[in-house]
Amino acid sequence: MSIEFDNNLPIYLQIMNYIKKEIIIGNLKAGDKIPAVRELALELQINPNTIQRTFQELEREQIVETRRGLGRYVTSEESKIMDIKKEMAGELLGRFIQGMQELGYKNQDIITIVSHAVQEKDKDKE
Amino acid sequence: MSIEFDNNLPIYLQIMNYIKKEIIIGNLKAGDKIPAVRELALELQINPNTIQRTFQELEREQIVETRRGLGRYVTSEESKIMDIKKEMAGELLGRFIQGMQELGYKNQDIITIVSHAVQEKDKDKE
Amino acid sequence: MSIEFDNNLPIYLQIMNYIKKEIIIGNLKAGDKIPAVRELALELQINPNTIQRTFQELEREQIVETRRGLGRYVTSEESKIMDIKKEMAGELLGRFIQGMQELGYKNQDIITIVSHAVQEKDKDKE
Amino acid sequence: MSIEFDNNLPIYLQIMNYIKKEIIIGNLKAGDKIPAVRELALELQINPNTIQRTFQELEREQIVETRRGLGRYVTSEESKIMDIKKEMAGELLGRFIQGMQELGYKNQDIITIVSHAVQEKDKDKE
DNA sequence: GTGGTCTAGACCACT
DNA sequence: GTGGTCTAGACCACG
Predict the structure, then answer these.
(1) Same structural domain for residues C68 and C87?
(2) Which residue range(s) make up the domain with B120?
(3) Is residue D121 a contact partner of residue C106, using CB atoms and an 8 Å limit?
(4) Distance CA A72, CA A35 (A)
(5) C110: chain D residues, CB-CB within 8 Å
(6) Please, are residues A43 and A35 in contact by the beta-carbon 8 Å criterion?
(7) Are residues C53 and C107 in the same domain?
(8) Scanning A58, B71, B117, D5, which has its CA 20 to 30 A from the CA of A52?
(9) What would you report as the CA-atom Rg of chain D, rounded to the nearest whole angstrom?
(10) What are phi and psi of C30, to 5 degrees?
């Protein structure tokens, strides 16, 4: 486990996104125990306080819950996890489409561009 | 002219993007004179230093050029403007596709999602 | 028997309060035997150490007494129980009035507010 | 300006409450500038990071807003301030009445107790 | 000068 | 061993 950090976004936000993705793609499942703050800090070479901040935010978003003295756990509500996925995808989609429209692209153009981009990626794999 | 500012992005970047878009969609044309810093600052209720910074960056990207004693002008190179458009679109596209893939969406899913989103927008207009 | 735990207060304190209330309202009477630590721990799904701590504190407050080999018992001094009731009520009252005054409420306002709140509760019952 | 700190509650929460009260009683008015983090830290003899934490939370509750590079301001929405007052009073009231009822006090008892407590306070002043 | 973030290291309460 | 809080001190971006 390692993250490539981008200097423009706070580390704690990048870790948040990383964890959210881990949950969405199922590497962390509903109810799973999350590694201890200090453990993650060591693994990611990040200060424990920064990790702590990450999980404070995730807890506020009800993605993670703390059981005192025991540790942190992924929320056990499966529906919450689906919500996050939809929310993150919706945000990506919204930003993309709005941005393209502001650049003057028509809806049909946008579909074409995405299709091409995706097909090229497929070709790369072959 | 007014911008809704987003607290998470530096204001000067938001103004930069705004101006780039104005150029791309043709509200500001190649060679056009750009309003004076003080004027824009008043209009947008922004610290003049911030506007100054905006144009410094735009100049570094060769989108804007200063003619001493005359003011600032949009670059007269049409090709440069096309470059910016492609660059901004490419960035949007890249971030979108990468993000969707990290959420576990397959390429075909992505096309479907975009198509639906765009068609709904079309319906809204009717 | 079950308690809804509030994350902001230590669990052992919440159990302490719960037991004090049980004593005050008479569900546990002076001299009654208190269930064994292990039993309570199972029932409440709590670490036995936490229950242990609860009773340590209750013993220190002389609300509970241990008879070696026999188990733990509610104190047999009725007066002690009245003391606890007054103490808890006084604490509640003090915190409430001080808080309201800090919010700028006058003494007369406080009485009015309490009266209204209580009357509404009565209405709900009808 | 000084706060007496209670060891059982995190400092940042105590400062939060203090600030909320200052706003409610009008010492800080809607739209007012709030002293700089470092300034407050000096005044209260508290680490600036702790003050920072305080305002992060207040901002999340939309009681305070940050204007980048300029400082922090009390929200300019008067209605929000009334909301906070009602919320804080409601919380105090709820905790008090629920607590008293759990101790076995009847509604009429509660009114009587509050009335007496308040009248004694009035006597003290004379 | 303003807030935002991060590191380092410490202490505490809880389980 | 777990998270929660706090201090100290530093650096950065922003206006």
Answers:
(1) no
(2) 79-125
(3) no
(4) 8
(5) 114, 118
(6) yes
(7) no
(8) D5
(9) 18
(10) -50, 130
Tell me which of D37, D61, D76 is where a domain ends: D76
State how far the Cα of D36 lies from the Cα of D70, in Å rounded to an integer: 10
Domain boundary among C61, C76, C91: C76
pLDDT tens by residue, chain A, 126 residues = 577 787 789 999 999 999 999 999 999 999 999 999 999 999 999 999 999 999 999 999 999 999 989 999 999 999 999 999 999 999 999 999 999 999 999 999 999 999 999 887 766 666
Our answer on whether B and C touch (3+ beta-carbon pairs < 8 Å) is no
Q: Is D67 on the interface with B (CB under 8 A)?
A: no
3-state helix, strand, coil in chain C (%, to 5): 65, 10, 30
Quote the tokens at residue D29. 């008015």
Same domain, yes or no, for B109 and B58? no
Structural domain contains residue D30: yes
Q: Residues D84, D75: contact at Cβ < 8 Å?
A: no
State the Cα–Cα distance between residues D29 and D21, nearest whole angstrom.
11
The CATH number covering residue A72 comes to: 1.10.10.10
Mean per-residue pLDDT for D57-74?
Answer: 95
How far is A111 from D69, CA to CA, in rounded Å?
41
Per-residue 3-state assignment (H helix, E strand, C coil) for A60-111:
HCCCEEEECCCEEEECCCHHHHHHHHHHHHHHHHHHHHHHHHHCCCCHHHHH
Measured distance CA(D117)–CA(D25) in Å, rounded: 23
Written as six digits, the tokens of A24 are 């969405």
Contact indicator for D54, D16 with CB cutoff of 8 Å: yes
The C1' atom of F10 and the CA atom of B34 lie apart, in whole Å, by: 40
Q: What pLDDT sits at residue C85?
A: 92
- Identify residue D121 by its one-letter amino acid code: K
User: What is the domain count for chain A?
Assistant: 2
Whether residue B50 is found in the same domain as residue B99: no
Contact B89 A97 (CB under 8 A): no
Chain B: partners with 3+ C-beta pairs within 8 Å: A, D
Quote the CA–CA distance of A44 and A15 in Å, as a whole number.
9
